[in-house]
């Protein structure tokens, strides 16, 4: 069972603009960098296991695309052996690891409020509001998938509405629908800031692919820290969760 510490604590809060939120996220990320890498390594190991189980070989697919000479008219991911199973298992992995990302947000808050961080903090999402985190992960994943299936760009316009969901689930112990509704309403009223913050945050998160493929391990978790900084900007610094 968890409660919130009632006394005020130290910690920084960014202004309600994109530049301030991203700068705050950078400062926080530098302090929790190693925990973010651990979370990504867990995700990558899970992905490799899934690839082994499904029989889908992403390396072979990339080589086939490269050898096509730019003619992708006859190429289809769906025809690749094991891709359907790989896609299904990857989606399940993403849902099951959502509490791990929530744990990273919790660690960021402990760093911001000058509280001692323990490795077990990374797994708090499996103890705190676990079911609602999973439900929210499914709902937000479906919304994002629909946006991506329509066209790549709509995803950037939809994702800002989901930006505060995970911090609300953690710090307010809200239900999945409450988190979705509150995140939507706050982002809708401040959409320009949320859109700018999301675009910059996502671009930085995927920068590791551009700079060096393995670099994605170092950059991808950044968007989770952006979620925390945006929460601080619009809802205030969270009080520390304590377990009784």
UniProtKB/TrEMBL annotation:
One of its GO terms (molecular function) is monooxygenase activity. It comes from the Bacteria. Coiled coil: none annotated. Keywords: Membrane, Monooxygenase, Oxidoreductase, Transmembrane, Transmembrane helix. The chain crosses the membrane at residues 32-53, 83-108, 129-147, 153-171, 191-210, 216-236. This is Beta-carotene 15,15'-monooxygenase. It comes from Chryseobacterium piperi.
């Amino acid at each position: 069972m968890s409660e919130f510490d009632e006394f005020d604590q130290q910690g920084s809060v960014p202004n309600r603009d994109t530049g301030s939120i991203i700068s705050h996220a950078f400062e926080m990320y530098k302090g929790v960098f190693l925990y973010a890498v651990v979370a990504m390594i867990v995700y990558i190991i899970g992905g490799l296991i899934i690839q082994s189980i499904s029989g889908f070989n992403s390396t072979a697919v990339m080589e086939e695309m490269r050898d096509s000479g730019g003619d992708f008219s006859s190429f289809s991911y769906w025809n690749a052996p094991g891709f359907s199973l790989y896609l299904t298992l990857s989606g399940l992995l993403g849902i099951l690891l959502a509490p791990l990302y929530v744990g990273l947000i919790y660690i960021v808050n402990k760093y911001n409020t000058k509280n001692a961080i323990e490795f077990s903090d990374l797994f708090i999402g499996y103890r705190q509001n676990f079911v609602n985190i999973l439900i929210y992960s499914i709902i937000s994943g479906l919304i994002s998938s629909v946006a991506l299936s329509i066209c790549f760009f709509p995803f950037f316009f939809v994702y800002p509405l989901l930006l505060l969901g995970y911090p609300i689930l953690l710090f307010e112990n809200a239900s999945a629908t409450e988190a979705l509704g509150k995140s939507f309403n706050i982002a809708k009223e401040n959409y320009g800031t949320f859109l700018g913050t999301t675009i910059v945050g996502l671009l930085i998160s995927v920068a590791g692919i551009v700079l060096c493929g393995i670099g994605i391990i170092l950059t991808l978790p950044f968007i989770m820290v952006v979620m925390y900084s945006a929460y601080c900007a619009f809802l205030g610094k969270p009080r520390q969760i304590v377990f009784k």
